[in-house]
Amino acid sequence: MFITRTRTVRTQNLINKVESKMSSINPKPIKTIAKMLNVSRTVGRIIYDDLRLKKRMKRKVHVLTGDNIKNRFKNSLLLSREIHGWKSEYAVSIDEAMFYYITAMHESHVVYLKEGKEMPKESTQTKKWH
After folding, report:
1. Which pLDDT value is given to residue 128?
2. For residue 120, is it left (φ>0), alpha (ψ between -120 and 50) or beta?
3. Cα 110 from Cα 92, distance rounded (Å)
4. Would you say 43 and 37 are in contact if contact means Cβ atoms under 8 Å apart?
5. pTM for this one?
6. Checking phi first, is residue 85 left (phi over 0); if not, alpha (psi -120 to 50) or beta?
7. CB atoms < 10 A from the CB of 30, how many?
8. Over the stretch 97-123, which tens digit does the pLDDT of each residue have?
9. Which contacts (CB < 8 Å, 24+ apart) does range 20-28 have?
10. Bridge-partner residues for 63, per DSSP?
């Protein structure tokens, strides 16, 4: 029979706190959570050993800036006038596959998922056009 010692740092209370912080779409880095909870490498052990979460990278998607939108609008007007002549001054057609509006400015590049769970559709990483 093995006698196990009681855990002093990796308690169920700490595991619940880490799980609540890692369940968001944009989780904070492990080092930041460790500083918030005043523990060291324990957070990584909780994530990978106790909670058995898997680290997945987010897909990159393009986000248009204000200058890109104005430039595309101007170019679409010029293209429309080139094709249809100057008669179509007020007719504009802009065809884009997808637009993403994401409010988070500083988002993480990773998502932690439980085993068997799939990547949520709203978890994307923005990539700005230059």
Report:
1. 56
2. beta
3. 39
4. yes
5. 0.54
6. left
7. 20
8. 444 444 445 567 777 788 877 777 666
9. 22/47, 22/51, 22/53, 22/112, 25/111, 25/120, 25/122, 25/123, 26/104, 26/107, 26/108, 27/108, 27/110, 27/111, 27/112, 28/108
10. 128
Asked if pLDDT for residue 89 goes beyond 70, the answer is no
> For residue 99, which phi and psi values (nearest 5 degrees)?
-120, 135
23 to 13, 19, 40: CA distances (angstroms): 16, 6, 20
Rounded to whole angstroms, how far apart are CA atoms 89 and 70? 17
pLDDT at 51: 92
What is the rounded CA–CA span in Å between residue 74 and residue 94?
11
- CA–CA dist 72, 105 (Å, integer): 23
Residue 93 has pLDDT above 60, yes or no: no
The DSSP secondary-structure symbol of 95 reads -
* Tens-digit pLDDT profile for residues 43-63: 999 999 999 998 888 877 777
